[in-house]
Amino acid sequence: MGSRITTALDGALARGRINAPAVLLAALAAGVAWLLASSLLHQPQTFFAPIAAIVVLLGGVGARAGRALHVVLGVSVGVVVGELVALLDWPDPLKVLVAAGVAMLVMSLLYTDALPLIQSGVGAVLVIVMHQPATAVGRLSAALLGAAVALVFTLVLFTPSPSRLLADAIGRVLDACAAALRAGAESLRAPEDGGRDHDGEAERTAVDALSTLDSTRGSARYLGRWSVRGRRETARREEMDALAARLVTFAVDVTALSRAASTGRLELGAAEVLDGLADAVTHFSSDPRSPDRARATRNATDGVLATDATARCGAGADQMLLVADGLRALTGGRDRVGRR
Predict the structure, then answer these.
(1) Which among 121, 139, 157 is the end of a domain?
(2) Ramachandran quadrant class, 264 (left: phi over 0; alpha: psi -120 to 50; beta: rest)
(3) CA–CA separation, 51 vs 24, rounded Å?
(4) Which of 85, 141, 165, 277 is the most buried (most CB within 10 A)?
(5) Boundary residue ending a domain (139, 157, 175)
């Protein structure tokens, strides 16, 4: 019980550390958006500005331009529908029902994504519930201002490094690969638990990391095209993107090798080989952008192959060589064709 609580707390803290930068940036943008809307628009209602800033910023970096458009369109439809329904002499609950329903139905004609539908419904409800002297143009201007503040924060003031984004995502995939290799080694050391040990968790982790890497590549390309910092990092970003593209094949090969270990197709002596490859992968994952780490990883891989690694892997020797060659290719060494 205690270990489960500790694990849950560790997971919560890890998620907090990951989300904290985006949360703080969104909070800062919300404050700035509110201040600008109050100062420039002179409207009694400026809540659409901070709402738009928060919605745009809390999400993937590469999708923020599209999200800004969704927010503005959603709020526009919601405000227009809400203003029209507010003119009717109906009870407020009926007004909310009709305004939210009509606004979301209108947006559903344009989008299947939930975000613009939510924004239109929320916008309509806010207009009805907080109906005060304020023009529809003012509310729309506030939403547009909030979205603009969010984009300025992303593309000019607080732009994340696209090469670092890619390097971090690559590192997570490599960490998942190292974990899969170690899981295979543990299966060899405890063959009676092999099937239970390799229950697909390592593979699922690798697949999730690859999915995150794919979306990160899109974000990095977006930043590289539209942000000042991204344009300065074009060469480094393209280098990391090429590494990310090669990483998919490597992850597939690692998964196959780990599965071979868990199903008894490797000899017991292969456990040490798998651990050696896992150590090399982990060393590289800490900073895939470092040439020194890439060189050290190649040397470590050669060290693993310098022993009787092939003989100890038995029937899985070919799969082990694929992983070793793939790791060398990732770090700038000879590729598989060259080795063969």
Answers:
(1) 157
(2) left
(3) 14
(4) 277
(5) 157
